[in-house]
Amino acid sequence: MNDLSPLDMSLAAPLVPNEGVANLSRRRFLGGAAGALVLAVSLPAARVRAQAEGAGALAPKPGTRVPAFLEISPDGRVRMFSAFVEGGQGINTAMAQIVGEELDVNPARFEVECAPPSPDHALVNGLRMTGGSFSTRSSYDAMRRLGATARDMMIRTAAGRLKVQDSELTTEDGKVVHAASGRSIGYGELAAEALLLQPKQDVPLRDPASFRYIRKPVARLDVRDKSTGRAVYAIDQKVDGMLYAAVTHAPVFGTEPQALDNEPAVKAMPGVHSVHRLPGAVAVAADSWWRARKAVEALKVRWSEPLRDRLSAVSASFSSQEMLAALKAETAAGLPSETEGDADAAFATAAKVIEADYDAPYLAHAQLEPPSSLARFNADGTLDLWVPNQMPELFQAVAAKTAGLLPEQVKIHSPMLGGFFGRHFMYGPSNPFPQAILLAKATGKPVKVLWSREEEFLNDAVRPLSFSRFRAGLGPDGTPTAISVRTVGEGPIARWFGAIFKNPVDSSAVEGIVEKPYAIPNRKMEFLKVPHPVNIAFWRSVGHSMNDFFYESFLDEIAQAGDKDPYELRLALLKEKPRHLTLLKAVADLSGGWKRGPYDAEGGKRARGVAMASPFGSETATIAEVSIADGEAKVHRLWIAIDPGSIVNPAIVKAQVESAAALGLSSALFEQVVYKDGRRQAKNYDAYKILSREHMPEVHVAIVESGAPMGGIGEPGLPGVPPAVTNALAALTGQRIRSLPIANAKLSGA
Amino acid sequence: MYEINVNGETRKADVDPGTPLLWVLRDTLGMTGTKYGCGIAQCGACTVMVDGTALRSCQFPIERVGGARITTIEAIEQDEVGRKVVEAWVEAQVPQCGYCQSGQVMAATALLKETPKPTDQDIADAMTNLCRCGTYNHIAAAVRQAAA
């Protein structure tokens, strides 16, 4: 999700399946051998056409219609309908800062919520989504202009009331002021009239030198509610007459419930309303979730036999080990993902050639809020759906198909997310909302479906297991002259957005391996698509989450083979890249000057590793300090320099970089979704270990604003961490980790 | 029918024996500030105070509550220590997604009630709730600040 080139929505096929989700088995939803999953844009094609035809039907340019974004109440509070969903990344606060800066209202008086579906909010290159670290960078200009336009509307309205010229008026934190007469009118009094005005096209923007909110560490709008239990998530929704539903999914992905041996007994359990078969699952609706869960777990279900074919579906013997072996064993030629110079010739004349295979496992999102959805059919035939999501229009369209309604009959509520990290895109059978719709339809009552933590670990869509084979040629002086990388596997963009991103080289599979800044003159990168039989997902930093680990680790191997210090080698290879050079030196300075070690420290020897990454339009440089204690890697400190070009909130940037670093470290040290005999092994946090406070290092973040086009923030802090840690371990022990997580390796003590 | 003391009030709950306190709070009493995370007392999102001690309510069946005083996040600001913890949480800008923070605030309040001046080791021992956003350093800073 690094690059979204501008989209022509009118040409895009629908992102929704061609038939109702209700009728689809999981295997068919995933497309199977036919590759039939049709995904496209968030708006149904018919509506896009309607907007394209005739001036009357023409939608306004996204981000320009002020009332679609702002409501100002008589007391001067601003209610903002954001294009994005808040899930911890601080986007609500950033939106308030950007709009508040130009509107001239203190962001603290904003209340920001995720807007309902509307073409006004398609701010990410014609799409609406919260992901790809796109939110701020895609909307910054539009939201500044929106705030400035709204301010101008306030001024014009006030000019009419005060009977003065616009030019005599100014604004001051939510008031229009006529300095000459000392009179002022609050925005709250003006708003009803002002927001109906025709907006001006060319309203000037504030001089950045006079910013009061942008680039300041403005306090987050949601911290008090989140510190006192008042924040409301999807799981907390409740409506009158609601039933609670619990589900059990097929133990082997793609199989279906065939018989329920004890259905009458389960129906007779206390509080049980009804028992249901769903695509790939069974469900119980009851008067409390606890009772529903007890009942569904008591059901004796006979499931269909898994397919026997090897890797086109999850078979009864499928394992992640087998999948990795298949990726490694694949011999077909790939498609070129990056070609520069003549790598074959450079390898033929190289003084030294090194090779290494790298792999990384399937990963779960493991966000703390288990997924849930609440569906309510209303008397007027409409459907209300409370659903954690990162794409409201797409969820609306798929929900409509599932319910047999038109999209405009489905009211999507997008509550705050209890963590997402990529979890709440459209993932077919890994989303609970179709179940909520089907159960609400079947029972005639509102139904809230909640997946237990176990069901979530077993049915979350996973970061793809990944494999790349690296080869480098070195000249007589130890400088790399050629690099080739063969990546085999599948990325989530082709799986879920294939209808609109048709490049056969899936950027989400190769990002982090291509477009590197290093001056290695001959490059030959290729990608061979081998689909996973399991449901795959976007996971914080997507392809970068493993590929930067692969590449930056191998770069340290190149340094070692050429007898060079890995930091010095990077400096040399970035000689012509001032932005990267500055950043690399910045992280070295932040850490007190580059020193690789090993060196003596409290508790034993430590060493440091360095890594860089170019994720989501930003640049990062990371240094990790490690030791080994009781055979386990211990990360003491992380130093991360990030250059996102320019920023909105330095405190949130630092918090996001630290958060992403924690997730990166968690993945490097512990995380893996393991399949054995067609089944996932870990069902809860006891077996799927994530970073706890015991393993949290000190994190020091430096922001470098180079002035380059604004990059992303939510994800870029992650990719540099795993390779910085493994490079540090190599410096400490000589042992090269080429397969994650580190916990799988037997570390040779310091 | 069970009668339990929640935030100083007697509340009735007509639930099956074995129902975890977590679900009584959330679904029967409508107090959704206490969160479900794992159901096996691993993550701590469901932490409440029982007679002033932090306890993971997902593994605490209703029949064992008896006359114990349950304090939930909804009443945290009525507690002097709890109020200080909340202020420290806001000051340190701890939460990101926020989902685990009810439990974190409860765990911190229980720690400071028992140990008003905790050492770093005390904090590490008591603050074991999981946070997927990785706010651990901010949490520790906020606990130290609330204790100051």
From TrEMBL, chain A:
Signal peptide annotation: none
Domain Aldehyde oxidase/xanthine dehydrogenase a/b hammerhead: 228-308
Cross-referenced Pfam families: MoCoBD_1 (PF02738), MoCoBD_2 (PF20256)
UniProt xrefs under InterPro entries: Ald_Oxase/Xan_DH_a/b, AldOxase/xan_DH_MoCoBD1, AldOxase/xan_DH_MoCoBD2, AldOxase/xan_DH_Mopterin-bd_sf, N-heterocyclic_Hydroxylase, OxRdtase_Mopterin-bd_su_IorB, TAT_signal
Family matches, as PROSITE patterns: TAT
SMART domains, sorted: Ald_Xan_dh_C
Protein name from the UniProt record: Xanthine dehydrogenase family protein molybdopterin-binding subunit
Organism: Chelatococcus sambhunathii
From TrEMBL, chain B:
PROSITE patterns, per database record: 2FE2S_FER_1, 2FE2S_FER_2
Entry annotated with the keyword Cell division: no
Cited InterPro entries: 2Fe-2S-bd (IPR002888), 2Fe-2S-bd_dom_sf (IPR036884), 2Fe-2S_ferredoxin-like_sf (IPR036010), 2Fe-2S_ferredoxin-type (IPR001041), 2Fe2S_fd_BS (IPR006058), Beta-grasp_dom_sf (IPR012675), Diverse_Oxidoreductases (IPR051452)
Domain 2Fe-2S ferredoxin-type: 1-76
Residues making up the signal peptide according to the UniProt record: none
Pfam families xrefs: Fer2, Fer2_2
Keyword Oxidoreductase: yes
Keyword set, alphabetical order: 2Fe-2S, Iron, Iron-sulfur, Metal-binding, Oxidoreductase
Protein name (record): (2Fe-2S)-binding protein
Organism of origin: Chelatococcus sambhunathii
Lineage: Bacteria, Pseudomonadati, Pseudomonadota, Alphaproteobacteria, Hyphomicrobiales
